[in-house]
Amino acid sequence: MKNRLKVERAILNITQEELAERIGVSRQTINSIETNRFVPSTVLALKLSKLFGKSVNDFFELESDEK
Q1: Number of structural domains in the chain
Q2: What is the pLDDT of residue 64?
Q3: How many CB atoms lie within 10 A of CB 52?
Q4: Separation between Cα atoms, residue 4 and residue 12, nearest integer Å
Q5: What are 31-67's pLDDT values in tens digits?
Q6: Are 51 and 23 in contact (CB under 8 A)?
Q7: Residue at 64 is within a domain
Q8: How does DSSP classify residue 59?
Q9: Do the domain assignments include residue 63?
Q10: What pLDDT, on the 0 to 100 scale, is given for residue 63?
Q11: More confident position, 54 or 1
């Protein structure tokens, strides 16, 4: 799965730590999502969607071999 979390976070000019605090996870969780080592739960994806005011699909996309 590809994601745009790092890009979207940069647009808002917030750190991994700030984002983590806002959605109630650790900075390491944010880092793991951004580096594709962790696929977030539906609840976490929805929290990100709400915080950024964007669809979950704006953040996460299946790779061609996952479709």
Answers
A1: 1
A2: 79
A3: 18
A4: 13
A5: 999 999 999 999 999 999 999 999 999 989 888 787 6
A6: yes
A7: no
A8: T
A9: no
A10: 82
A11: 54
Six token digits for residue 54: 């964007």
Judge contact between 7 and 35, C-beta under 8 A.
no
Rounded to an integer, the average pLDDT of 12-22 is 97
User: Following DSSP, what letter does each residue of 10-54 receive, concatenated?
Assistant: HHHT--HHHHHHHHT--HHHHHHHHTTS-PPPHHHHHHHHHHHTS
Q: What is the pTM of this model?
A: 0.89
Distant-in-sequence, close-in-space partners of 29: CB < 8 Å, separation ≥ 6: 20, 38, 40, 44
Task: Please work out, in degrees rounded to the nearest 5, the angle formed at the alpha carbon of residue 28 by the alpha carbons of 33 and 58.
Answer: 25
